[in-house]
Structures are given as C-alpha cells and as structure tokens.
C-alpha cells in the first residue's frame, strides 16, 4: 500500500509544510495521483477525482479569487481524496473554512515547492506501479510461508531474488518512525546497500530487497556455507543496513537455500521483538527462550533453533579446547542438578559452575539465573536427553 508519506518522500517534493495536521494523515492510502487545473464548474464537480487520490495543484485557475479557491478545495475534500498538495507559485488561498473542513474530514493539506505537477504525477504513478509489483511478490512469499516444500522453496526464492546459491539469509527491516519516513525511501536505500555488499563480497550469489506488507525483507544468497555459525559478512551487512537510517532489524540465521523460509520466519519474529523492545537489532538466536516459544508450533523451527545453540557451544569448544557442550548436556540430563551433572562428568561441582558461566557468556546470557539457563539447556538438548522425542 502506498501512503501519503510515501508520496511526500518522492524527490519531486523539495520542501513540504503541513497546512492542516490531521491525525494519521501520512498513513492514508493513495490509490492514484491527479492534477487539478480547472474549477469544479468545468469538470462535472470534480467527479473524475476518485476517493484515495492524491491531488497536486497550484490553484492557478483561481489566482486571487478567494471564493473560487475555497469552493474548489471544499469540493475536493468532499470527494474523499487522500491529500491535497498546493504548490506555492501563486500563493494559494486557504481560508479557515477550508482548514476546518480538512480537519473534520481528515484530508491533509500541504504547501510544497519542487518539480512541475507532471513530474510529481510521473514519480507517484511509478511508485504505485512498483507497489503493485511488490504486492505480487508478497503473495509469493505468503504462499512460501504457508507450508514447506524444499523444491517449492528453492523455486520461490529464485523467482523472488534470482537465488541459486548454497545458502540464504534474511534480514527484516522496518523504519523506526513510520509517520516521518517513507517505506519506499528505505527500500531504495536498502537496495543500494545490498548492491554494494554483493560487489564487495565474492561469496555472495544474489541479493534482493522488497516490501512484505509493512516490512522490508532483504535476502542474500551465498555460493557456499559460512565457515562458522556467524560469518564476518553478516556483521558487515548488518552494519551497512543500520547505517541507512533509524531502522529496526530482525536477523535470521543463514540456512540452506531449500530451508530459506526458515530464515525469513526467524527474521520476522526477531524484528517483531526489536519493535516491541525499541531495539535497533535483534538476532534470532538472541531470543533464546522466546525463540523456542515461537518455534513450538513449528517442529522444524524448534529443532533448528536447538541445533543453532548447540553449534555455538561446539564451535567454542573446537576453538578453545573446552567442554562446554558436554557439560551443558549433562546439566540438561540432570534437569539442572549441578551435583548430579558433576558426578556424571566426574568433575567437581565448582568446575561445572565455572563451565556454565562460560557457556552463558558464549550464548549471550551472562546475567541469566542458573534455573533459567538450565531450563534453556533442557530445550537445547531435548532431542539428546528425551528418547521419546524425535527431531
């Protein structure tokens, strides 16, 4: 959906000033753009202007005629247009009666300076056309997320992003001030960032950004799996996206291309948390318990989340020669009883406590109470510790 804010963010508008502030004005839907260049007497009472249309005009036909200016604007407001933008060429007359009608109807009025009406209309109609194409892509993604078929997933990601690589990662993006920032302006900035990122990283197969309902999704396909659970390229990409402006990010994990819907689900869930908490970025693994709760109704997502946490511990063990993974599994088997876990490991309980502190640090849960962390480990190692559970 294109909004008044999207239209006002177009390059054709060099300067915009609200004449009447209406609650939620920038969020009003725009279905078309029209140019007003005649009085209502010559256009069947402006019947050709449809509800939801964004109107640009300089009221040149009513120059210095306060009565005609008033009548023209009142008729447009009664038609239910989405907004009216008055170009300050002839100092358009907007009296108190028009202001009151605008406020009552919720139809915002703006003064603006910038390009000719035809340029505004061209850019706006092009944006509406782009939005229609984006909506079609959104429907493709809706179908993708409604179920899981590896072949269908690969086909959908190829249709969306031209992705043919080995893995894919999704980052969900939302402007943090929707009333003041255009979703499509952010989309253009995100598209440019992805193009630069692809140019700078040889392992990138394809990049793509598009609108998905009120969110922007960026997809990056890689030619080969990363060397570790988290790659340098991810950190670089996140930094670049954050530099585009005040946005919130939800970062999904890199997955095989046939499981690309998993990364999209993860990114959307992480973004929702970021928006609720007012955070600039939330990664899927950062959700910890909430990630498992979100995955509870999605078996594959649950097991993938558990595997991610185990991989982070195992990767640390491989690099540092520690035994965090085995210790955490023993604690999970002992249902959090550190004494029983220490006996199973043939270690002193203090050794187990020390390793758990290190494991908390690796998983980013340094301040979590022991009972909370033990509960998380029970989920992480659920398929290892419960013979009745099969991933």
Automatic annotation (TrEMBL):
PANTHER family: CARBOHYDRATE DIACID REGULATOR (PTHR33744), CONSERVED PROTEIN (PTHR33744:SF17). This is PucR C-terminal helix-turn-helix domain-containing protein. InterPro entries: CdaR-like_regulators, PucR_C-HTH_dom, PucR_C-HTH_sf. Residues 326-366 form the PucR C-terminal helix-turn-helix domain.
